[in-house]
Amino acid sequence: MAIENSTAGNGGSPEKPTLAKDSLTVNSFSPFNLTFNSILKMKTSAFRIARGAAAGLQKRAYSQAATPRHLMTIADLTPNEFANLVRDANTRKIAVKGGAPASYLNGGLAGKTVAMMFSKRSTRTRVSTEAAVTMLGGHPMFLGKDDIQLGVNESLYDTSVVISSMTSCMVARVGPHSDVANLAKHSSVPVINALSDDFHPLQTIADFLTLHETFPSASAKGATLGLNGLKVAWVGDANNVLFDLAIGCVKMGVDISVAAPKGYEIPDNMRQLISSAADGVSSPGKLFETNVPEEAVKDANILVTDTWVSMGQEADTQKRLKDFAGFQITNDLAKRGGAKSDWKFMHCLPRHPEEVADEVFYSPRSLVFPEAENRLWAALSALEGFVVNKGKF
């Protein structure tokens, strides 16, 4: 119905408008000569234009955003970058333990949330990461296997896109390496591998910080941290911790010898990746492999081992204990094999007595507890480098 104006018979004074029954148009007398449908169409059109413009801006923002840099393995780093992460961890450790104020860490994660997505249980990794995020002023949000099941109730793609839209970093401790790789592939924020079946880069940063502290050198400013010429002997299962450690050794000019029982050696694809770490390195470390522990420890400065039965391998415990007989690290093994007289020992923990004797684990040769603490400084350095400084270090 239209609004119509009529005039009174006496003096032509306008009366209150009345509604016509046959139209929805405003009478031509009205300055608003528009139909209600036209108004609706205009509003709808304006909304669509605004929505389209917003979508375009959002799309351009996403397309123009820099691709985040992730830490999947030490192989992702150049020798200089790896050395810089270790040096940064060392610098911060010295400063903070020396009494530097909290402001020294600059609060680079202030107002930011770091999602800690752990599908495997953890002690050192969880504590060190939560502490590091807090020290940088951020909020660590722990998501355990009961909170989030990667790739089970929701695809890794969906999980990555959603969680990365709400946080500033994802730290993932997973089983298959493909899980953390897929999180990184679809994430809009940095993803840090806190352990996968293939790699453990944060452990390697901590291990090299421990070596850097134990074997200081006047040439430590170089790309090799002054560690070139050292020899590391790994005795035990060729696993994820070894793979990143070996890559780091090759990049830093540290020789590494690996003694593993038959059937537990480095797989071909990992051997190739370790070898490729020498590309572009002037004096890379060398990889030696054997099935005889005594051969591996000859002239070694550092003896290293890890658990013989990793998470998920419990059903094979008895078989593994039998297969690894003779691979326990003892003073006698080091002596028989001819390790350096001042050799040291490292273990990423948790430790079991069959892997290393108490006489070594609790001796002055053992670096295991400083090594464990260094997980904190390694996490802090990685978060600073990949999240705060956006992959530039």
TrEMBL record:
<comment type="similarity">
    <text>Belongs to the aspartate/ornithine carbamoyltransferase superfamily. OTCase family.</text>
</comment>
<feature type="domain" description="Aspartate/ornithine carbamoyltransferase carbamoyl-P binding">
    <location>
        <begin position="69"/>
        <end position="213"/>
    </location>
</feature>
<comment type="subunit">
    <text>Homotrimer.</text>
</comment>
<dbReference type="InterPro" id="IPR006131">
    <property type="entry name" value="Asp_carbamoyltransf_Asp/Orn-bd"/>
</dbReference>
<dbReference type="InterPro" id="IPR006130">
    <property type="entry name" value="Asp/Orn_carbamoylTrfase"/>
</dbReference>
<dbReference type="Pfam" id="PF00185">
    <property type="entry name" value="OTCace"/>
</dbReference>
<dbReference type="InterPro" id="IPR006132">
    <property type="entry name" value="Asp/Orn_carbamoyltranf_P-bd"/>
</dbReference>
<dbReference type="GO" id="GO:0042450">
    <property type="term" value="P:L-arginine biosynthetic process via ornithine"/>
</dbReference>
<comment type="pathway">
    <text>Amino-acid biosynthesis; L-arginine biosynthesis; L-arginine from L-ornithine and carbamoyl phosphate: step 1/3.</text>
</comment>
<keyword id="KW-0055">Arginine biosynthesis</keyword>
<dbReference type="InterPro" id="IPR002292">
    <property type="entry name" value="Orn/put_carbamltrans"/>
</dbReference>
<feature type="domain" description="Aspartate/ornithine carbamoyltransferase Asp/Orn-binding">
    <location>
        <begin position="228"/>
        <end position="380"/>
    </location>
</feature>
<dbReference type="GO" id="GO:0016597">
    <property type="term" value="F:amino acid binding"/>
</dbReference>
<dbReference type="GO" id="GO:0005739">
    <property type="term" value="C:mitochondrion"/>
</dbReference>
<dbReference type="Pfam" id="PF02729">
    <property type="entry name" value="OTCace_N"/>
</dbReference>
<dbReference type="GO" id="GO:0004585">
    <property type="term" value="F:ornithine carbamoyltransferase activity"/>
</dbReference>
<keyword id="KW-0028">Amino-acid biosynthesis</keyword>
<dbReference type="GO" id="GO:0019240">
    <property type="term" value="P:citrulline biosynthetic process"/>
</dbReference>
<protein>
    <recommendedName>
        <fullName>Ornithine carbamoyltransferase, mitochondrial</fullName>
        <ecNumber>2.1.3.3</ecNumber>
    </recommendedName>
</protein>
<keyword id="KW-0808">Transferase</keyword>
